[in-house]
Amino acid sequence: MSDHRRRRVLFFRPFLTVYSITSVALSLATPATGIAQQLQPLAEFLDHTSAHNPDTREARATAAQRAHEASQAWARLYPTATIQASATANQYLGAVDIPVGQPGTAGATTRHVVITPTDQRDGTLTLAVPLVDVSTWRGISAAAATRDAQDARLRATDLTVQATIARTYYQLLGAAAVGRTARRTLAAAEDNVRFVETRVRAGLTADLDLKRAQAEFERDRQAIEDADYTIITLRRSLEEGAWEL
Question: What Å distances lie between residue 78 and 81, 130, 134, 147, CA to CA?
Answer without folding.
Answer: 10, 7, 14, 21
